Amino acid sequence: MELINRVPSTLPQRNLIKDANNVAKKNTETNNGPALVIVESPAKAKTINKYLGERFRVKASMGHVRDLPSKGIGVDIENNFEPTYEILPTRLKIISELKAAAKGCGEVYLATDMDREGEAIAWHLGHALGLNQKNAKRVVFNEITKNAILKAFDNPHQIDQDKVDAQQARRILDRLVGYKISPLLWKKVARGLSAGRVQSVAVKIIVEREREISAFIPEEYWKLVGVFTTDMLQAADLAVQWEQFLSGPEEDSDGPVDDTDSAAAVSAPTNADKTQWLMENKAFRAQLIELDGKKFEPKDQAQARRAAEIVGLKDVMAQTVENDGSNGPRGIPAKGPAKLISTVSGRVQPGDPSTPEFRIRSLLTKPSTSRPPGPFSTSTLQQAASNQLGFGAQRTMRTAQQLYEGVELPGVGAVGLITYMRTDSQNISTDALNMVRGYISKHFGQEYLPESPNFYAARQGAQEAHEAIRPTEVHLVPSEIRSNLSDEQFRLYELIWKRFLACQMAPAQWLITEAIIEARQRRSSGSSAFDPARPPLFKATGRAMKFDGFMRVAGAWTRFDDQLLPPLKEGQPVAPLDLRPSQHFTAPPPRFTEASLVKALEMQGIGRPSTYASIISTIQDRHYVELRDRRFFASDLGMKVTEKLIEGFPDLMDLGFTRKIEGSLDQIEEAHRDWVEVVRSFYEPLARDLATAEERMTHARAEATPSEYKCPKCGAMMAYRLSKKGKTFLSCSRYPDCDAALSVDREGKPVVQELTDYKCPACGKPMIKRVGRFGPFYGCSGYPECKTIQAADRKTGEPLPPKPPPKPTGLTCPKCGKKELVVRSGKRGEFLSCLGYPRCRMTLPADKLPEFLDLKTKNQWPPPDILAKAKAGKKAADADSVSAGNEPTAAATGKSAKTLSKGAAGARAKPKARPVKPL
């Protein structure tokens, strides 16, 4: 069935135009010409234009059109922080086109996004175009659908000055921090560094976690987990099979590693494998919880060994080896008790007269429910996309923006698939609730539909006038429109669609079973290893789903220790297959992932939904943190910059102070608070700190921290110092008399250069094995005279053969028109690219080379489609050349806007120069 016939809110085009013309007629009765609508992006303009029809002309501003000047601070501190704005150089042509379009229009609608930044863009557009209140109308909508668009245009309003002031205050605060503090970092740490009001606090959060991890000392503890079966006749054979199963190789398995959490366990069967084996053999896991009438909490090997012998482990052997970093628990530093790795092993003999008998002492079954999680807000969407899809925050927001602005669907045209994606609300409109409840009832049945809608409380300060992120039309099932979406769009849309559907479904119902197993001394045994009045007790827990509820859509999840117990009854005998003690250590605090950092920022009240992605991107671009294996590591530079900022600006770096400022910005919007007062309350303590900070801050490169290592040249002690590039290294304490220096790893240990037998292909000198930010590689020992490097194979460590030189094609690059296209080799094979890379990034498929050469012989190179692609790429590069984050340090040096934008994780290109006047 075609989508156009299935989706209530996507009616045939003639009906849309008819309704839109009614709105246009109403709003242009006293005016000449069509109405002009200005949005932010061409994709959004295309989707909206479909609903509005011919009486409206929809144009895109391409994001921000004005901003503070690229040179100079642009804020008059002495005159109530009055800002001066400039039209962005990349928007001059667009503003001219919009002015020309506005002259022939009766009405001008500013239809930018509904958040503060969107309101500010509308306000800047009004000033840049010289609009007045009479013909400038503001329209906002949470979703780009027919009903939402027509309703918004039927009820236009004026620009919300409170929202504008809140965004303006944020921008001014960020500019003050960037221009006042960054020069101090240049003096005290290194040139080119920068500080940011929010970003610096985010770095501090990561740096503090880094220090917690460095200071962490693991604590030792032990567990004794038994494996039991109800198949008494086969118990002896099953014990042998279980041992063989554990020692067998892992084949095509996935999931978390064995609960011994040892690095050696990577070759063992996974938890999923073990659970499956236990279910097939009527077996289950149970943990020793009580011994000698007391809670069993062994702290060392001796206590664990004694417990194992009491419960029946035979031929017990204990072994202790030194932790060399490869044989210890993963993620646990080899410090304190974790310097030694201990094991206790033995064998189990079911039915042996000297082995205790085991019986089910008690059974308890109780119901449990799992309530569905709420709909997505910006932060929870970023967290879920990171955890489930592996998307970074920037990737998530870029893809969500595409889904919001509109995707082409057959028979329908451009359709906005989700509601506005920058929100901290958990609210769902009444219409949306009715829509999703009707869908659940029809497609899943009444048992999956709660009696009343599920409501969710948002965090304090959330804007409840907004809505949560949800599909605009629940009937647009992801699988049915898969062919019209990119892989990224499909995966994110499916995540949002399922979450919205699940949040309004019934809870999942479980049956939790707890079985207590006691050890009993056999009558044939002559002596007892324990007091019969206080027998050892094991506890087994199983969970079975009674009703899937919302998990039918969201998918059922299992915990690490989830298992399905076989049928049990009180007094039933069970036989042990394994009674294995295992050594464990407490783990250091986990490093932040993008998901957990977003969560931490939200919990601390740092930043707002629209800023999380740019915060994360900016702190990486400035090399204050590194993302490795999806986890953040504070760089040496980030730790030193944080240390200096805390030293000189304690208020700025205080989380509570930053949270208070964020609350004050909210008050400007929601409680009409004077924005000048908020900026002044921030700037006064900053000015006090600025007056004394230079005296209090010592130069980072003048500081030296003693080390335990001796100089390889003179034998003096070495000290840790900071290099010009912000890297920690070991330097001789007699410097400059002795210039010896050594690189160090993340733990501060000297990195010894490893000369290899491989010869440099350029000069023949031995190659040195090194490790860089992209992994292992080989560098010539003749550096810096010879700068040859070779990549290393990540699996074997062997040097990879050098890439073949680019092959000339004789084709001129259609993008720059200067350099030649060449054939290069990449991960996915050969491709065509400009010889001027990276200045020119034009690429084309190599398999089309014969076709391109044929066009050249016919004087038809480049063809129109390739030329259009090249021009589009150039425009996109220009549009991205303006920063959207806090002030880069280079701004104060007067560098170009394009230079300033390097590394800025911009959502929208930031808002050229006139004093601010009321619209």
Q: Which secondary-structure class do the elements indicate?
A: alpha+beta
Helix content: 25-40%
Distance between the termini: 50 Å
Average predicted confidence as pLDDT: 83
Overall 3D geometry? Answer: globular
Major sheet summary line: 6 strands, antiparallel, barrel
Tell me the number of strands.
Answer: 33
Strand order within the widest beta sheet: 8-9-17-16-13-18
**Helix run count:** 24
**Which runs of at least 5 residues are low in confidence (pLDDT < 50)?**
1-21, 23-30, 250-266, 876-919
The proportion of residues in beta strands is: 15-25%
What tags apply to this protein structure?
alpha+beta; 6-stranded antiparallel beta barrel; 4-stranded parallel β-sheet; globular; disordered N terminus; disordered C terminus
Q: What is the secondary structure topology, with strand pairs?
A:
Elements lengths: L2 H4 L6 H15 L7 E5 L2 H11 L3 E5 L5 E2 L7 E2 L5 E6 L4 H12 L4 E3 L5 H14 L6 E3 L7 H9 L6 H28 L10 H17 L4 E10 L5 H13 L23 H10 L2 E9 L2 E2 L5 H10 L3 E9 L17 E8 L9 E14 L7 H12 L3 H13 L1 E3 L3 E3 L14 H15 L42 H17 L4 E13 L16 E11 L3 H4 L18 E13 L8 H11 L7 H10 L3 E4 L2 E4 L1 H13 L6 H17 L3 H22 L8 E6 L6 E6 L5 E5 L8 E3 L10 E6 L6 E7 L2 E6 L8 E3 L15 E6 L7 E7 L2 E6 L8 E3 L3 H9 L6 H16 L17 H4 L13 E2 L4
Parallel strand pairs: 1-2, 1-6, 6-7
Antiparallel strand pairs: 3-5, 4-5, 5-33, 8-9, 8-18, 9-10, 9-17, 11-12, 13-16, 13-18, 14-15, 16-17, 19-20, 21-22, 22-23, 23-24, 25-26, 26-27, 27-28, 29-30, 30-31, 31-32
Helix pairs in contact: 2-6, 5-7, 7-20, 7-21, 8-18, 8-19, 12-15, 12-17, 13-15
